[in-house]
Write a structure and sequence with these properties.
InterPro entries: 7TM_GPCR_serpentine_rcpt_Srz. This is Protein CBG26701. This protein is mainly alpha-helical and 100 residues long. It has four helices and no strands. The chain has one domain. The chain starts with a helix and ends with a helix. Helix 2 packs across helix 4.
């Protein structure tokens, strides 16, 4: 990352085309997005493991709670989608607050 900033500082000193700097910036940007995506995926999977553990606990010790705990296939898709939205928005808001 510091290498990119060094190249940007050298931009005023040298007369290289902008494509040279994009060659460094685009892969660095893609790498940052991949790391952030892995961070969100890890958080979501940990959350799902916790939810499944609690669900199994209640199903084992309180079998009558099955109709309240088990989600249908349609509702499960909505639940997964909204959990991803929740964690992505949490991460975006956290990054914005970190910079301001």
């Amino acid at each position: 990352m510091f290498f990119l900033f060094e190249k940007i500082e050298d931009f005023g000193k040298q007369k290289k085309p902008i494509s040279t700097y994009l060659m460094y910036a685009i892969p660095l940007f893609a790498l940052c997005l991949c790391v952030l995506a892995m961070f969100v995926f890890t958080q979501v999977f940990q959350f799902f493991l916790t939810i499944m553990a609690v669900q199994k606990f209640f199903l084992y010790f309180y079998p009558s709670s099955q109709k309240y705990i088990v989600l249908s296939s349609k509702n499960m898709h909505y639940f997964v989608r909204y959990v991803y939205y929740l964690f992505i928005s949490k991460d975006v808001i956290g990054r914005i607050l970190l910079f301001f």
